[in-house]
Design a protein that fits this description.
3 domains; 5-stranded mixed beta sheet; elongated; 11 strands; alpha+beta; single chain; 442 residues; two-stranded antiparallel ribbon
Length: 442
């Protein structure tokens, strides 16, 4: 049988592949979003209008200023070079108007300068982006991956956020956090203080560590972050160290009331540092602790019974509901009854304070609500943050959240507490003054 010569063998039959049914997929950097483009153009136009209105208002306030030869001293002088500001919808180009002072030179100390409040000098990113960066860091995004992550969130033009830029920002957060930890507290006064240990589920070095947080209410009713550190929630040593650090920075006047959960470590430390401060246990934590000692079939009913205590209009009614709960649950569920009864006085302390404040004083919600977003949106990852880095990131997040904290209801009652006015069942006790001369005449 002969061998077929490949050089003279017939060619294989080929088939042409049509391209009319091939769908070309866009690359990630090629996506177009008409809606985002509309929003971005609208934001650019609104920003330009706002800055123009501000410069017009600035010139109108100085319209009476004249040069030595009688001309207008301040005049429009074109625009600064265009720059981009990174926003929540991506980069927005802005062009700032310039104002010229005809009377003073560029280096003169008395030169009048126009600085728009809506567009500060050298501003490259909005506050929302500043808050996003530490959150992404806590979530597990490494420094080198920030550009890619932000490009996916804000568009391919998310410039100025390279690894080196993120590194510089992080160094700035460290410096800001260090300065905040050393700030002088001699001018501060806090009527109420909330304390809690928050487990963020972030990638900390030690999984047993948590963030010890203290928030205070000023005499004006504003809530402020007073102090926070890393430590063990049940450790009296860690809590004592945090409280003593506040005292060393001249936080000398103890608060009227401290609200916290049943963590024995904190109460031991607080009793040593603030021995005369009243104590209020958090009802949310206490309710959870009591229900945990009951079978599920009993939990809905017992929860309603507990609500009847802390929702009572007066201490007397609350005491009756308290006694009823203990009497009902002691025979079969002694541990649940003991869990409630051991903190009886601390659970009802809020009745000696203004009724408008009760909803703020019965729980540690000012801390829980602040850290809820961070706790729920952070995950553990293989890489670990140093505690120093985690504290700096959390500080930036809380600093941003602090701007939106609501003032206490009934804040006008706080100065009365400072002056020593007493309250009974949330109502101010009016002390009747006796006219001794009238009494003697009678």
């Amino acid at each position: 049988m002969g061998v077929l010569d490949a050089s003279i063998s017939p060619p294989k039959e080929r088939y042409a592949v049509p391209y009319d049914n091939v769908v070309r997929l866009k690359q990630p950097e090629a996506f177009d979003d008409p809606l985002t483009d509309i929003l971005r153009n609208g934001a650019r136009a609104l920003l330009a209008q706002a800055v123009e209105a501000e410069v017009a208002d600035f010139l109108s306030k100085h319209i009476d200023l004249k040069t030595s030869d009688g001309h207008q001293r301040l005049v429009r002088h074109g625009h600064l070079p265009e720059r981009e500001v990174m926003t929540g919808i991506g980069p927005v180009a802005v062009c700032q108007p310039r104002v010229r002072d005809r009377e003073a030179g560029s280096a003169a100390p008395d030169r009048i300068r126009f600085r728009p409040s809506i567009l500060p000098p050298y501003m490259r990113r909005t506050k929302s982006i500043e808050a996003l960066l530490p959150l992404l860091y806590l979530k597990g995004i490494s420094t080198g991956d920030f550009s890619e992550a932000l490009a996916a969130l804000l568009g391919k033009d998310a410039a100025g956020l390279s690894a080196s830029a993120i590194g510089r920002l992080k160094d700035g957060w460290f410096d800001e956090h260090a300065a905040w930890q050393k700030r002088d507290l001699s001018t501060k006064r806090y009527v109420y203080v909330w304390a809690d240990g928050i487990h963020l589920q972030a990638r900390l070095e030690d999984e047993k560590q948590c963030i010890l947080v203290i928030i205070g209410a000023t005499p004006e009713g504003a809530k402020e972050l007073v102090g926070f550190s890393d430590g063990a929630r049940e450790s009296a040593h860690d809590w004592r160290e945090l409280l003593l650090d506040l005292k060393r920075r001249r936080f000398d006047v103890p608060p009227q009331l401290v609200i916290a959960d049943g963590a024995l470590g904190f109460w031991k430390a607080a009793g040593e540092v603030w021995p005369k401060t009243r104590e209020q246990r958090c009802w949310v934590h206490k309710t959870a602790n009591v229900l945990a000692k009951l079978p599920k079939s009993q939990q809905p009913k017992s929860k309603r019974a507990l609500q009847e205590i802390w929702m009572a209009a007066t201490r007397t009614v609350a005491e009756l509901a308290f006694d009823a709960f203990i009497e009902s649950y002691t025979p079969k569920y002694e541990k649940a009854a003991d869990c409630l009864s051991k903190d009886r006085d601390a659970l009802l302390a809020f009745y000696d304070f203004p009724a408008e404040h009760w909803k703020h004083l019965r729980t540690t919600n000012p801390i829980e609500s602040t850290f809820a977003t961070v706790r729920h949106r952070t995950i553990r990852s293989k890489g670990c943050l140093s505690n120093k880095t985690a504290l700096a990131m959390v500080f930036k997040l809380v600093e941003g959240a602090q701007r939106s904290w609501r003032r206490l209801d009934g804040h006008n009652q706080l100065p009365k507490l400072i002056l020593g006015v007493t309250f009974n069942d949330g109502i101010e006790v009016i002390t009747k003054t006796v006219d001794h001369q009238s009494a003697a005449a009678a």
